[in-house]
User: Which sequence fits this backbone?
């Protein structure tokens, strides 16, 4: 380790505002995936409800992932700054070791379970030959190309499909530490991050060339939020904003997020979604909120603790939640699709997913993380992840 800040001093403290954002993001993902099961089964549960209310509650899954990406970029860059003192001193080996210990164990476990379910022919888990079969899906997952596979061959089963976001994120972080060392973060490094931000809308529109999957899952169309998060971390490390400015950032950030998440119909009417700018505005609002939360050291009220808890286990919840969705939706179908049971289905999915994610973290992901750090011959405080900050 080459950090001047060796030891526990560089550990990033909990940030309630960041956890709240991740909690909000995973909430939208959960709601969207329950909604998709209901839609596929043609359950008309939304009939008679205001269109915007339905859109805001159950159609914001893709926006939720965009929030995740922005938070991820901020946390990874902030942690690197705390650990090594500057991004230019990032230890490439240790960076990769961190990512491997945090991401790979649960990913491998998930792929093992999904492979077994595919081979035994369990409904909703079998990968068709048209989609490439099990071998191609495994190769794509392990090489972070699930998004490419789906763009070329169509969607994989839902439990596999969620890995598209991990593909985008990990490809970005494959090159991130090398860029930090080679470019010695300065004007060129910042310019590259800004270029990712500027190209994001194009990646979601014209560069998708009419491919609906690639429009949502492309690398370039998704990495803008990660780059924005990295830029936010650099800004926070270099500038201490006044309290008045922090409040202004918090307000404008919250307004931007509410506009995109809560007024999606108007956003679409204004052409912001068609031009790929809705995601950009959401990333900007998220990062404004992050700056305020990071420098104001905002503490969440007790009423927000459930949302904070969701955010704390976002990675584990994200990778395991589709098992919960399928299980509870199966019970819903067996009960005869009662309309009065739909709200309970949504609520139960959020609660059960949080429980499964928490158990997975405590019983498997965290022990494996610690064991791998020890195996790599590093002190835990040298390879410690940002406290409570798993990223999807």
Assistant:
């Amino acid at each position: 380790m080459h950090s001047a800040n060796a030891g526990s001093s560089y550990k990033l403290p909990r940030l309630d505002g960041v956890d709240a954002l991740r909690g909000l993001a995973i909430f939208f993902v959960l709601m969207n995936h329950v909604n998709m099961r209901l839609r596929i089964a043609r359950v008309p549960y939304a009939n008679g409800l205001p269109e915007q209310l339905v859109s805001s509650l159950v159609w914001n899954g893709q926006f939720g992932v965009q929030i995740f990406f922005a938070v991820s970029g901020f946390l990874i860059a902030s942690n690197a700054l705390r650990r090594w003192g500057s991004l230019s001193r990032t230890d490439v080996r240790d960076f990769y070791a961190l990512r491997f210990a945090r991401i790979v164990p649960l990913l491998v476990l998930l792929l093992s379970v999904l492979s077994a379910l595919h081979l035994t022919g369990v409904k909703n888990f079998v990968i068709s030959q048209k989609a490439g079969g099990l071998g191609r899906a495994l190769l794509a997952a392990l090489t972070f190309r699930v998004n490419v596979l789906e763009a070329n061959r169509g969607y994989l089963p839902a439990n596999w499909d969620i890995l598209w976001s991990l593909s985008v994120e990990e490809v970005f972080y494959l090159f991130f530490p090398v860029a930090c060392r080679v470019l010695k973060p300065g004007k060129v490094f910042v310019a590259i991050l800004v270029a990712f931000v500027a190209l994001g809308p194009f990646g979601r529109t014209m560069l998708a060339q009419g491919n609906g999957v690639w429009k949502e899952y492309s690398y370039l169309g998704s990495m803008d939020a990660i780059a924005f998060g990295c830029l936010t971390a650099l800004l926070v490390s270099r500038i201490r904003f006044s309290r008045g400015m922090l409040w202004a950032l918090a307000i404008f950030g919250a307004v931007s997020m509410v506009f995109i998440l809560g007024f999606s119909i108007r956003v679409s009417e204004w052409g912001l979604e068609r031009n790929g700018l809705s995601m950009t505005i959401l990333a900007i609002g998220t990062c404004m909120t992050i700056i305020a939360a990071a420098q104001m050291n905002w503490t969440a009220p007790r009423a927000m603790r459930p949302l904070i808890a969701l955010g704390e286990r976002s990675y584990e919840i994200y990778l395991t939640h589709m098992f919960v969705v399928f299980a509870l939706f199966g019970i819903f179908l067996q009960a005869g699709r009662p309309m009065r049971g739909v709200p309970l289905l949504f609520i139960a999915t959020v609660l059960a997913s949080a429980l499964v994610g928490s158990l997975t973290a405590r019983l498997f992901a965290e022990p494996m993380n610690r064991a791998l750090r020890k195996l790599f011959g590093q002190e835990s405080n040298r390879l410690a992840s940002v406290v409570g900050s798993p990223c999807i």
